[in-house]
Amino acid sequence: MFTATTLRTLNLYDNVNGFNNAAGLLADKNHFPGIDIVKFGENISIIQKRTTVENISILDAYEKALAVFRDYYQYEVIQGADRKKMEKIPEAAFREAIANALVHRDWSIPAHIRILMFKDRIEIKSPGGLPKGITADEYLNGEISCLRNPILGNLFFRLQYIEMFGTGIRRIQYSYRNALIKPKFEVTDNVISVVLPVLNSQYQVTSDERKIINELGQGGQLSSSEIAKRTGMKKSKTLRLIEHLKEKGYVRV
User: Per-residue pLDDT for 201 more than 60?
Assistant: First the structure.
């Protein structure tokens, strides 16, 4: 149980104002929004399961989101006398994305963090754009750390849920260092989105096809002309390779 001294050390309480909003977010029961998790079937019209966690400690919300993630994206393989845990999506990347969504979101917006679970990916959408003082490029490149909620950031750092040095994006990217399809990040004025693709070691592609997939993984939706320019290939060759990748189901046009 926290003592008054501990609460003051963590900047959750002071003798003049009492408990602050950060303390409220950590309380077992509170009035704040939480996390809305939806598991889709073959398309967005098929909702297989929906879980909403709200008005509870954000630490509990974090753990509940992890439990749902493990249910859908982890499994065990028996190899002889051993059981090996397999990951469809790196848990390290999901942990980082959820922790950062909780710490960096704008809590003045009465909306849930949304986790959309698909067969081939997870999309995590956090309410509120970037805090003042940081650009989208700086955020994506991890060049500067600018916490919107420093008290929460400090607590999550102490619990070793996050790093305090703006390395969240880099750590997510590192989790996919050997993957063909890379995570995607999108920043708007009102939402920060992270897309974590399912790992697949069965991709059968040529070196040139891999170049195209890598560019799409970094740039999202690109025209064939843009892909040709980035890869240094002729437009006709690029179109031919895109058609091959489309037939294999690796890209959508």
Answer: no
Task: State the DSSP string of 125-164.
Answer: EEES-PPTT--HHHHHHT-----SSHHHHHHHHHTTSS-S
Pairing of strands 191-197, 82-87: unpaired
| pTM for the whole structure | 0.77
Where do runs of H (alpha helix) occur along the chain? 4-9, 21-26, 58-73, 91-104, 136-141, 150-158, 168-175, 207-219, 224-231, 235-248
Query: 10 Å Cβ neighbour count for 46?
Result: 9
List the one residue out of 59, 60, 67 whose CA is nearest residue 37.
67
Range 75-102 average pLDDT: 87
Three-state SS letters, 198-231: CCCCCCCCCHHHHHHHHHHHHHCCCCHHHHHHHH
CA distances from 77 to 45, 71, 114, 187, 197 (A): 32, 15, 30, 37, 21
